[in-house]
Amino acid sequence: MTPQQETLIRETWRQVTPIAEAAAEMFYNRLFEIAPAAGGLFHATDMARQRRALVEALTFVVDELGKPEALLPVLHDLGRRHAAYGLRDAHFEAVGAALLWTLAQGLGPNWSPKAEAAWSEAYGLVADAMREGARESTAAPLPN
């Protein structure tokens, strides 16, 4: 990830944070629309709390971009915890699609091909680290 991409991610995230609660709700609505089976992972979840946790996690990722020593251990742990909730490898694609869609909706005309490329790159790093953590917890490949 380039310094320019990191800067673009930080700038666009600052634009989303004023609507963070609505964006998190849009994210989960979109996720459950494109991956209905993922909804089962949240059947006993306080979704208001989950939306806050999502925003906090994304804020942490944005704040720690470029600092793998701080970011990777947290993402590995997040992957381990999500594996215990029933995370499947196939969920990562749906989560990435829902995230990019949500950012595009929230940013409107400020969403650009460069912003999409930067966020795609960042999400790929997050997903890879979480997959690694999930594999550590299961000691086997994640099921599809």
What is the share of helical residues?
over 70%
CATH class: Mainly Alpha
List segments where confidence is low: pLDDT < 50 over at least 5 consecutive residues: none
Strand tally, please?
0
Average pLDDT for all residues? 91
Shape: globular
Helix/strand/pairing category: mainly alpha
- One letter per element, helices H and strands E, the order comes to HHHHHH
Strand content bin: under 5%
Number of helices: 6
How can the largest sheet be summarized?
A: none
Would you identify the CATH H-level superfamily?
Answer: Globins
| Cα end-to-end separation | 28 Å
Number of domains: 1
> And the CATH topology?
Globin-like
For the record, the CATH architecture stands as Orthogonal Bundle
* Cα gyration radius (Å): 15 Å
Quaternary assembly: single chain
Please, could you describe this protein's structure?
The chain has 144 residues and is mainly alpha-helical. It has one domain: Orthogonal Bundle (Globin-like), CATH 1.10.490. The protein is 76% helix and 0% strand. It has 6 helices and no strands. Helix 1 packs across helix 6 and helix 5 runs antiparallel to helix 6. It is globular. The model has no long low-confidence stretch (mean pLDDT 91).
Main features:
mainly alpha; 76% helix; globular
Overview in brief:
The chain has 144 residues and is an all-alpha fold. Helix content is 76%, strand content 0%.
Fold blueprint:
Blueprint: H1 3-16, H2 20-34, H3 47-64, H4 68-85, H5 89-107, H6 113-138
Helix pairs in contact: 1-6, 2-3, 2-5, 4-6, 5-6
